[in-house]
Amino acid sequence: MAITQLQWNSRHRLGGLIMALACFILPAIGRAESDTPMKNPVEWINQLSDKFKLHGFLSQGFTYSNGNNYYGDSTHGSFDLTEIGLNLSYRLRPDTTLAVQGLSRRAGGMDNGSPRLDYAFVDHTVAQDSQHRWGVRLGRIKNPIGFYNESRDIAVVRPGIILPQSIYLGGMGLRDFFLASDGLGLYWQRHGQDSALSVDYQVALPTQLSSQTQRAFMRGVILPGHLDMETGQVLRILHDNETNFRWAVTGVFVKSQYKPAAVDLLTDGTVSIYVLTLSADWLLHPWQLTSEAAWRELVYKGFGAAVDSQPSHLSIYGEALYRWSEDKWQASLRYDLHYFDIDDPNGSTMEAHTGVPGHSRFSKDLTLGLGWNVTPTFQLRAEYHLIDGSGFAPLVDNPGLQAGNVDRYWDILTLQAAFRF
Amino acid sequence: MYFLRNIFRLWWLILLLITITLLPATLIHANDANAVIITHATNNSTTHTKSAMRAIFGMRVRQWSDGKPIKVFVLPDSALLHKQFCKQKLNVFPYQLRRIWNRLVYTGTGHAPIEVADEQEMARQIAQTPGAIGYIHLYEADHGYNAITME
User: Fold this and answer.
1) Domain A2-420 falls under CATH 2.30.30.180
2) Which residues of B touch A99 (CB under 8 A)?
3) Is pLDDT larger for residue A54 or for residue B23?
4) pLDDT in tens, A8-18
5) Backbone phi, then psi, for B120, in 5-degree steps?
6) Which residues in chain B touch residue A285, judged by CB atoms under 8 angstroms apart?
7) Ranges of each domain in chain A
8) What number is the ipTM of this complex?
9) Which of A189, A199, A242, A321 to mutate against chain B (most B CBs within 10 Å)?
10) In CATH, what class is B36-150?
């Protein structure tokens, strides 16, 4: 058993090292070729036709933490953060595009790296003129939540290595919906004088939630029945003055129903989740100030007195980013705060009733970040997180968590190399 | 408070951050040369507003008013002319455009502009591609492209 475990770990470490090496070598190859008239293979493919575009990304992280694990066995140093993606976009007609992205993400116990279809949809522009455009999307679509949810797993597009967990973690019953949903999307955009307004509405088809979301739903207890998402809807309004200020308001409504097995501890209750997210971003070159806040209301109904409850979550983060050398370098400072129950912010009531440590009900994360764009397509990043509260310590990476074997104060140091093409 | 203790533990990092802040940001050397936006010769709409140009180079507007698809050409982010064009014509920084294009490309909601190596290639592509738009330093008449006047 111990040997198997060791082999498993070393195999993963080796994979991580290979990935890390690839991250360093590939951009060098890309760079060498761009200096000569010869094109690299991707450029060559993309120049065959202006209808067909191929792009992708590759990233490898290293995580070291004390106290609790994050992205694998990070208290001993972990390479368990690898993101690989490949996407195709094909313009069938001037007004119709087909877009597909495959993604493999390995993130400790949270994501096992098995390839998945990240998105696959047909986008049809119904009408457009010089000022307006509206259309429909059909298929598997990323849900537009806040500024960054649509690009949450793409290292080169999101700000930092770990997104502010308070806004983007997803949490109980929301994870699947935060990744993507199968359904219909409508969009409307207006480009006025010095402003752009876009409105996105998406509705998901009913679906059975992943086993991972189901486990998170009952804090690791494996239930014999299954959890179905009955409704998932999102509406985002985003306004951009096109030079230095943008804001967004996002509303999310997700309702799931538990379908009990023949013999089950739980009855067929429902969980309704309402989320309101406010986002603002102000560019004061060389500074960029970003803040997002979310209010979540969860309603557990029909499970019986032991489970039925209506907790409200509060999340907020603020980030100041500084750029220098024409965006070659960035440094950032972020404070991210999350309470899982606004009526019991420090978890003391919960601790008194259940014995579960109160600090698992909140998270306060002070993050210092440094980014270096080595080439336009290759970047290195480092982040140091100082955390008070175990609210975002993943159960899957911390098996002792349920027994209360979890630290309140912990630090994460994480490094990442990311390449896009 | 633990939070404050954390700050004190990292005083040296904060000091570093402050030092960086006080360093002057590298300025874009906007010399006398001006960027001129050009389109393919058959394109009739040659007067545009700054926001219309931002919508086109931000890849949000995809058709000219006559329904012809817009084909956007740009130089690499590091090219001096690209930086001048961003600042003078759109009043944005190159990294803002890059952020917009990356979001479109990696969420499947749009395409990035076509990147060409240099100004000669830019002029050549625009002269031979119907619906094309891009920018150059020196406008010359009768080379197969029109200059766009900004309102």
Assistant:
1) no
2) 108-109
3) A54
4) 444 455 555 55
5) -60, -45
6) 25, 93
7) 2-420
8) 0.85
9) A242
10) alpha beta
